[in-house]
Design goal:
The protein has 300 residues and is of the alpha/beta class. The protein has one domain: Ribokinase (UDP-N-acetylmuramoyl-L-alanine:D-glutamate ligase), CATH 3.40.1190. 43% of the residues lie in helices and 14% in strands. The chain has 13 helices and ten strands. Strands 1-10-9-8-7-6-5-2-3-4 form a ten-stranded mixed beta sheet, sandwiched between helices. Strand 5 (115-118), helix 6 and strand 6 form a beta-alpha-beta unit. The protein is globular and about 45 Å long.
Length: 300
Amino acid sequence: MTRAADEAVTVTSAVLRQWPLPAPGTGKESRGRTLVIGGSDRTPGAVLLAAEAALRCGAGKLQVATTSSTATAVAVALPEAMVLPLRQTAEGGGIDPGEGAEDRELSGVATGAHAVLLGVGMVGEPDVVALLEQLVPRLERTVVLDALGLAPVTRDASFLHGFEGRAVLTPNLAELAITLDADPEEVGKDVAGAARELARRTRTAVAAGGGESWIAAPDGRVFLDTSGGSGLGVSGSGDVLSGIVTGLCARGADPVQAAVWACHLHGRAGDRLASAVGRLGFLARELPPEVPRVLAEIEV
């Protein structure tokens, strides 16, 4: 049997120029509405990284839903966004699954968004699962799950089948193994095969990364992106990647296209910082400002 890695398309700028993103239009509404749901008292910055990354790749209208105790700080740090405060749990400072899912304003914002990212910075797996199980079935467009947002898929691979491919999962290698209930060492030996298997089970696009990124489509296609290097292995880097994926989906990109482009933009942003700062030691928050420059280089 041919290994998934042997069938992979290697992603380059030339490949992406033959697969252009949807035309951006002239106003923010033409580039879609992005919603980032996440955060906690412990990790309030995750939604900032993801939300800025979504804007930096060209998304038009940004909305963030996060815990009430951190919402004001997030709004000040991210003046471009509408920030919705959500009631939080007594323990852990995460989003209260009952109050969050039943919040009428959140439901209205979520169902009106073109792409919704869930999971970044969230804490408390049972609460996260309860929130997503109530909220996700109501969503009408594209869904992106990251970090603890992957927990419902880990429990039930059919969780997103109703979206008919309009979904993206962005696990790191440890999360990829957990989601597949597989041995981490075996996953590390065949990341391409593991990503393809998760895409098959969940009927979603999967972008799985370590030192290199493997993107798998539900139909079996596999892509390899070797940009970025070890410098991207830093706290918050995955939040940036998931934000780029979501922003591109909001712009109208197909989920597989969004995942492929996002991995390349993320990696090339890391390459630029490696040249300017050093191979190691640049920060996740330095990645988003590089994304528009990479986009400009690709789209010339």
